[in-house]
UniProtKB/TrEMBL annotation:
EC primary class: transferase
GO MF assignments: ATP binding; thymidine kinase activity
Native organism: Streptomyces spongiae
Annotated catalysed reactions: thymidine + ATP = dTMP + ADP + H(+)
The keyword Nucleotide-binding belongs to this UniProt entry's keyword annotation: yes
Protein name: Thymidine kinase
Source species taxonomy: Bacteria, Bacillati, Actinomycetota, Actinomycetes, Kitasatosporales
Gene Ontology CC entries for this record: cytosol
Cellular localisation: Cytoplasm
GO biological process: DNA biosynthetic process; thymidine metabolic process
Length: 214
């Protein structure tokens, strides 16, 4: 049975790498994939991994109907044996419904990859819809780690190394704004807004001893 699978995890846990591996293994056996992405750090129409691999992809636009895109593609006599959607957190909920329809009505497997929550630990609308609709949600095996060594479960946005909790939900990483970065943290340190830089700074500052009053 074809499936809608949501591979989810924090940033930097290997989602795009896995997407490229699935694509490689299937294309090595003569299958052809339809690859969707949106706002990849490598630029428009690219699916890239931090390991340096990159492939061409269809850049999804606002309001684009992904089911219609597949139907048009197939009715032109072109092939699509499976579908990959990277950066799926950036898709609209309706586009996730369209991907579910691709599974159910076109009998194609759809592998979606994305982060579940944003820098404030709130669900992205696209990821929420994936959790609601997916046949399976798979958490990636390679753990990203917090600076303290615990498993990283949350994504922090940083400004000059300091965690911020205000701002737009979507700010693509590694492009345009050099001051803004992302860091994965465990829940404890995300709650305390303690990044690697702030932890280092507080470790360096001299202990403040309680002052005894007479
Ligand atoms: N220099 C490196 N050597 C080995 N593995 C690396 C290196 N740089 C990145 N990685 C691996 O790549 C992962 C990030 O891959 P990527 O697919 O881009 O992540 P995601 O799409 O989840 O953000 C890291 O978690 C790490 O396992
Ligand atoms: C937490 C968070 C992330 N983003 C952006 C930053 C990156 O461009 C992608 C995640 O890509 P990755 O391959 O999983 O590293 O999402 C964002 O726009 N808003 C956020 O809150």
């Amino acid at each position: 049975m074809p499936e809608l699978v949501f591979f989810s995890g924090t940033m930097d846990c290997g989602k795009s790498t896995l997407a490229l591996q699935i694509e490689h293994n299937r294309s090595a056996r003569g299958l052809q994939g339809m690859i969707f992405t949106r706002d990849d750090r490598a630029g428009e129409g690219k699916l890239s991994s931090r390991l340096g691999l990159v492939t061409d992809a269809v850049e999804v636009a606002d309001g684009q109907d992904l089911y219609v895109h597949l139907v048009d593609h197939l009715s032109q006599g072109r092939r699509a044996d499976y579908v990959i959607a990277d950066e799926a957190q950036f898709l609209a909920p309706e586009q996730i419904d369209q991907l579910a329809r691709v599974v159910d009505d076109l009998d194609l497997d759809v592998y979606a990859f994305g982060i579940t929550t944003d820098f404030r630990s709130k669900l992205f609308p696209g990821s929420q819809r994936l959790v609601e609709l997916a046949d399976r949600v798979e958490v990636l095996q390679v753990e990203a780690l917090c600076w303290c060594g615990a498993r990283a479960t949350h994504n922090a946005r940083t400004l000059g190394g300091h965690m911020v909790v205000e701002g737009a939900q979507v700010v693509v990483g590694d492009v345009n704004q050099p001051d803004i970065g992302y860091e994965v943290l465990c829940r404890r340190h995300h709650r305390r807004r303690m990044t690697a830089a702030t932890a280092r700074a507080s470790a360096l500052s001299p202990d403040v001893l309680p002052v005894e009053t007479v």
